Amino acid sequence: MVKKVKSSEEIYDVIIIGAGFAGITSSRELSNRGFKSLILEGRDRIGGRTWTDNRLGRDLELGGTWVHWGQPHVWTEIMRYGLELTPSPDHEVAYWFEDGKPKKGTKLEYSGILGEALSRYLEDSHLHIPFPFDPLNSPTMEEIDKKSALDRLNELHLDSVTYDNLKNFLEIAFNGPPELGGYSTLLHWRSLAMHDLQFLFEILGKFKLAKGTKSLIESIARDSAAYIQFTKTVSLVEKVDDVYKVYTKNGEIFIAKAVVVTSPQNVLNNIEFKPALSEIKRMASAEGQTSRGIKYWARLRGKYDPFSAYSPSGSLISSCYYEYEVDGDSIVVGFGSDASRIDPNDLPAIQNEIRKWLPEAEVVECTGHNWVADEFSGQTWNMQKSNQKIRYMAELQRPENGVFLAGCDYASGWPGMMDGAIESGLVVSRKVQEYLTKKPINLNNQAH
Fold first, then answer.
1. What distance in Å separates the CA atoms of residue 64 and residue 55, rounded to the nearest whole number?
2. Distance, CA of 333 to CA of 340 (rounded, Å)
3. Does 363 map to a domain?
4. Percentage of the chain lying above the pLDDT 70 cut
5. What's 228's domain CATH number?
């Protein structure tokens, strides 16, 4: 990828705001079709909410980790670039809580608590979302989208142990409060996993890229002929006659015939648009989505057998998973549902939480990134609130003249994940090409 721009006086075919997976994918597609493309990235790196960085003695994923062949867009790119996968370890040991007391057992025992209840929780996904990449094409979406994740949990009338463990699972999934999260969001997940819970869990947490998420996005970037500028925070996108002027906070102006905006839902309103984006798009950003939590990594002194651990609902951290061994120590990863309550870099706080399960554990070092406080994200992975798919999804995907939204937050399938970001980048690049050439792309009309 070319990294220098000759002059801000040039007129580009398209400016792409953001160098995450959606932005980099759309830049590859458009630049390789001959459209002069410029990426403006506020950070000093590519990757967006995915970030592979060397910490605690090895490369770690501060955002974005697991991929799977059940996710068609990301898997196509993995095969395209010949990248290798590696599995996360099997966790035969499990820790959880029953009536406020810690329990140790096997993964099978813990699954026995949640398995049947979770199956009931997500039953009939094939009826509610029969087309996983077209979730609005559903006879019941309007009905199920009104329910929060907690509403659905309360309908099951579970015993207290099962109820609390399933509620904690929801806090992990939404990386936020289940009373805000949309029930339809989790039904959508199961639909995308062929309505199979075991397959869903494998997709969400089993396989990762052997050389990190950066190996994939760097491969896509190398295939792009777009220009890029880093540390360019966009403040205004203004339509002037037949072009768009894109203003940065430090006073620079770039000009293009079309603009792709990859800002996540929670921070979309941080950019001013003239004319303004539709009221519905602005409402979606102002309302925000559910996730507001943390992802933390910790290095524990000594070797531990691979384990998974789960908190009572409402805890500072919701989970902890053994992931690596490094020089005789153990690296664990986990999540918490509220970044305002705990800092992933606060060693005493993280250690205190881990000692709920492992009373003798010594945290040598811990780390993480506060994505919620990050001005370019304002959230972790996108998890829609109740009543948001029906109200916002179609409008967020609708271009407004030469302004297009792209990103995992706006995907039809696997929203909030790398697969969704790549899907959105591909779809939007086609729409931009149609806009710039003023003609639809119809392969059926091309000569063979």
1. 15
2. 19
3. yes
4. 96
5. 3.50.50.60
